[in-house]
Structures are given as C-alpha cells and as structure tokens.
Please model this.
Amino acid sequence: MSAKQQSVADAASLAVFSAEAGPRIEFALKQNLPLARAPDNIIFNRALHDAVFPGGRRFRPMLALLASELVLADDNDALRAAAAVEYLHCAALIFDDLPAMDDARERRGRPCLHLGCGEGVAITVALALMNASCQIVASRAARDRAGAHRALLELTDCVAAQITGQAADLAPSPNRNSDARSGDGSARYWKTSALIRLALTLGPILSGADSSDVAALIGFGQTLGEAYQIIDDSRDVEEDRGLLRRGRHATFAIERGCEAARGLAERLTAEARRELLAKFGDLPSVHRLCEYANLPG
Model:
C-alpha cells in the first residue's frame, strides 16, 4: 500500500472510530458530572453544564480511547480515563480565563464562564471538576487498588505540572534567553503536555498495561504535547502579544514566527509517530492514533 493509500485508509478507519466513540464519551461525561444535589445550587449546576457541554471535538478523551485501544485496555477503564482527563481540561480552561490569569472574554464562541456566573462560581466549578476526576480514578480501587493508586499518582502529577506551568505563565521574565525548542524554557508548556500525556496513559494504567507500553505512550505524549502547544500559540499570536505587554513570556511563535512554529510542530509530530511505530509496530490502532494526533485543534 502506498503512503497516500495508507493515509486514506487511516482517515476512513479513524472516522468510523470517532463516530462510534463520540456518543460514548458524551455519555461518560454526563454520567460522572459532579452535580450539586441541593435545590439552591441551580446556578452552580448550570455553570457546570456550560463548562463541559458543548466541549469542542474532545481531543483529549479521544486520545484516551485510542491509546487504550492500542494496548487492549478495558473499555470501562478507557471511558473513565476519557471523562477524568476532559474534566481536568475543562477546569484548566476555567482557571486560564480568569481575570487574574489570562483575563479572557470568550471561549468557544461564547462568553467565558466567569463572565456569565461570576468568578466565585466559576472557580467552584473548576474545583468540582478536578475533584470529580480524582473520584473517577479512585473508584477503580475496589477492583484493583494498586492500579488505582498508580493512576491517581499519574493524575496528581498532571495537576502538579499544570500548576507549575501556570506559575511559569504568570512569572515575568524580561531578561530571558529563549529555548531553541519551545520558546521560553518549556515550563509553561507543561500544562499542555501533562494533559496529553495523561490522556494517553490513564486508561492503560487503570487496565494494568505493561510498563514499557506506558513508558512509550508517555514519550509520545510529551512530544505531541509540545507540538500541540506550539501550534496553539501560532494561532494566538495577537492575543499572546497582549499578554507579553503585561509581562508574560514570549512564545516560540512570537519569537521565531508562525511559519517556523508550524515547521517545528510538524517535525515533533513526525518524531512522535516514528517512536510509536517503533514500539508497537505497523498496527491499525497505531495508525488511527497517529492520524488523530496529526490534527490538534
């Protein structure tokens, strides 16, 4: 099969997988939503729903299902991972948008959550989603205490990386030598890489996947996460210039230009693909994951 034929076949296979997986992801998110039961929490519950639905194309939960498929993980564990990772992602977006952070006005074509319900409610919703992600993983302990413990450590490592990355985002650095690969020494990129790494490893860890398989997915996630952030920065140059005036770090796209940023992201994605193929071989599930990973957005 030629490279072009392989690409067409991968896209068709991925389309079928996505069409089947999408409704399952949405069901898992609704099923585990940490709604408040008290009757006077209508505003909180409405804000919680708005934070999670609609949620774009669910890039991270789709990665969770694709990575779980690759290592033959249990389907229920894969869906647990998909929901937990998406909740963390939604919480991170809420925190990012706050006036004390990026002071954003719009998210996914709608006013940011804190503008609609107030900062206090928005922060509470973000904390509820983070807590729910921990509960989802901890619920696995009844079947496999060791696996749940390992998964919780991976999840809390992800949260720690997000905190470190956000702190780097907020720290002014006027006299800084940029890193040749990621613009600012890469600490601020930990937020993105950590979530993508978690998406790729949480389901396999919950299902007791081989440690070498998990290690390969960790490396794939780190490289893919950096590429994803560089692409995202190349789309947000004007917004990031505004943050730069407030003392934030310059991104790779600002310092080297959008064309250079896209070129670097393509090289990183190709590197990640080669590493995954070297570990798992020429399998349909590998091609589906690589095909999807080439389309961050």
Notes: The longest strand covers residues 106-107. The radius of gyration is 19 Å. Strands lie at 106-107, 110-111. The mean pLDDT is 84.
